[in-house]
Amino acid sequence: MIKLLNYMLFLIPFMMTGCDKFLAVEVPDNLTHDEYWANREQVVASMNGMYSSLHNNLNRFQVWGDSRSSLYTPGPGDSFTTDYRQFMAQDIYPENGLLGWGSVYTAITWINSFIKNAPGALERDQTFTESELNVMMGEAYALRALNYFYLVRTFKEVPIIEQPYESDSQQFNTAASSEEEVLNFIEADLDRALSAVAPDFENINERYGRITKNTVKAIWADVKLWRNEYQACLDLCADLSAVYGDKLVEPLNWFSIFSPGNSSEGIFEYQYVQTGFASPLYNWFSHFQQNNAKYLANIANIQVNAGEKLYLPTDPLHFSADTIRLKNYSAFRFSPVSYAGGSGYEVYKFIGQSPYELNYRPTGARNANYIIYRYREILFMEAEALAMLNRYEEAEARINKIRLQCNIPAVSTGVMGADLEFMTNLLMEREFELGFEGKEWFAAVRIARRSGFADALIVKAAENNPLGESYQVVRARLLNPESWFLPYHRTELESNRLLVQKDYYKNK
Q1: H-helix segments, 127-203
Q2: What pLDDT shows up at residue 191?
């Protein structure tokens, strides 16, 4: 069975638009013609298009969800532009090209068209079953929820668009909905999805890259944690633990999570192969000798918070956790690489084929899957929710489950502290395990928004800024919580007159 991305897409012009103007989508008229939605094959092709539209946005999602986390330092590639530098400096302006959300709304309007029109094929193709359609509809609702979840974590207030683009006469000027309204909309979609998507697919190759009930539960647990609904988050995580709790990759096999990917603890990964679309990780972390890596790793900023009580500096094998273990060619190429204007470490877990020896993937990381959810992140979600319920011993047990699976000594009861101290240490543990996987800024914002926890984000981001910005300058830029979210791009404001720039950014 060929992976999803190898299917021939029927809409190449759509996939290539890359438009950054608000809802300036170019969905062809044939999406709404009765003759298009005539049979199962056309519906399947449209479903593949929905998944492929997710590929179009992964680079943007990585920037929004991770690049402000201070784990990064500029690479030698010419693609590291002023726009990326603003994110790293915590000084973002409305003209920044990385703010454009047009391609995300293009994906959403594709999904809206599928939700509206795909059921019509049932009446025209007797080989197309209602149960098969329901599974696809569930995937559509889940993909729409996932897109909106990235938007709301990035901008907080965003427009909700439920209807497909079907005519040039349609008007899409739409005011931004409140964060609560967007989250309610997301949860409604996830509820529809959970009742429809497949528990799994009998053919394992069909499962790869497709949304299942476990994917929906992972997204929903993340949403519940964002909303500070801790018990609801734990209930969803418990369902996932029942499936994945005994499937953690063995310590000596940990690199299989990234190469070849689709490990036993993987929940949802966007699939890449050597032909077809290139993984966005290839453009971010391609190896230094190619001289085009957009980013390198700022290991100094990881080390600074590794206190003696969590990692014994006299024992280098246990200095950090599994996937950012400071050993040659594990998560990082241990020796720093230097170039005119900077230096840093290669993020080897995305570009290597095997650990502990220099062995790059063919043509870089072109075929590195983009991991959207894996089980160890679920364990960190549980730990965070339990800690917020003052169940610290249980929270530490979740962290120790990861540590012991990495052959890392367990933390003793109480050693991680409580309240802000615990959350600061939790973020460090997340970075050791999930670093550069796209969500560490989101995790820091989620924690920092709770009363008394702001310094979990501000101090971490202000220390050891990779661009050399002073602690005082970066801290000042982040004191207002509105700065943790992004402004609307100026072109979005010009295209949508009902969209109003946020107060924090009006004078920038």
Answers
A1: 130-155, 179-194
A2: 97
Is 4-502 CATH 1.25.40.390?
yes
Cα–Cα distance for residue pair 408/400, rounded to 1 Å: 8
For 364-416, the DSSP string reads: TTTT--EEEEEHHHHHHHHHHHHHHTT-HHHHHHHHHHHHHHTT-PPPPTTTT
Domain ranges across the chain: 4-502
Greatest CA span in the chain, whole angstroms?
70
Given a contact cutoff of 8 angstroms between Cβ atoms, the answer to whether 447 and 453 are in contact is yes
Q: Tokens representing 504?
A: 């924090």
Q: What is the mean pLDDT of each run of 10 residues along the chain (508 residues)?
A: 33 36 39 70 92 94 94 83 94 96 94 94 91 95 98 98 74 89 98 88 69 96 98 98 94 87 94 85 76 72 44 40 42 61 79 80 79 97 98 96 84 92 92 90 98 95 88 97 98 94 94
457 within 8 A of 463, measured Cβ to Cβ: no
Element (H, E) at 457: helix 455-462
Q: Determine if residue 363 is left, alpha or beta; phi over 0 gives left, psi from -120 to 50 gives alpha, anything else beta.
A: left
Q: How far is Cα 309 from Cα 303, in angstroms, rounded to an integer?
A: 13
Instruction: Please state the pTM of the whole predicted model.
Output: 0.90
Q: How many CA atoms lie within 13 A of 101 on its CB side?
A: 28
Angle, CA 340 vertex, CA 336 and CA 341 arms, to 5°: 85
Give the whole-angstrom CA distance, residue 261 versus residue 283: 18
Joined together, the tokens standing for residue 187 give 């949860």
